[in-house]
Amino acid sequence: MFRATSGGAALAASAALAALALLAGATPASAAPPGESKRCEALHAVANESPGFMPRRGGVVTGTGRAHLHTAPDAGCDSGKFLVPNDRVTLYTPYKEWVQVMFIHPKTGEDTMGWMLGSRLKTTGTMGPS
Q1: Where does the pLDDT of residue 51 fall: very low under 50, low under 70, confident under 90, or very high at 90 and above?
Q2: Which CATH class is domain 46-126?
Q3: Calpha distance 115→75 (Å, rounded)
Q4: How many angstroms separate the CA atoms of 112 and 115, rounded?
Q5: pTM score, two decimals?
Q6: Residue pair 53/94 in contact by the 8 Å Cβ criterion
């Protein structure tokens, strides 16, 4: 796993290790089982149909420890990425107890999208005109 806010070197090292593991026939720890991947994709498509926040809202990660990002709004769809308390995000789509978020790394500008539990977020206000 790597933190969504990790630098390029750590990301490259993580990707290289994952590639070696795949060549060796191993399944990455964060990868969903074959049937789960399709289920996660289908759930993401359904959840993405929910009306999003307009205008977009800003948020900050709360609580303690890692806040895992998921490919769909389901605990079984872990992406292997995570945020930490005080990371700032843009809130996109709410779905049940989940919220789709985007994190932009403050140093690299790299963006990461994912779903996380709304209970780990605090709204900081709207972004743009109401």
Answers
A1: confident
A2: mainly beta
A3: 10
A4: 10
A5: 0.66
A6: yes
Domain boundaries, the chain: 46-126
* Residue recorded with tokens 């989940």: 98
Q: Are the C-beta atoms of residues 104 and 121 closer than 8 Å to each other?
A: no
* CA gap 25, 101 in Å, rounded: 32
| H or E, element range at 46 | helix 34-48
Q: In this predicted structure, what is the pLDDT of residue 120? A: 98
User: What is the three-class DSSP state of 122?
Assistant: strand
Residue 5 is predicted with a pLDDT of 42
- Position 35 scores a pLDDT of 61
How far apart are alpha carbons 114 and 54 in whole angstroms? Answer: 18
Mean pLDDT of 35-53: 82
Q: How far apart are CA 5 and CA 22, in angstroms?
A: 24
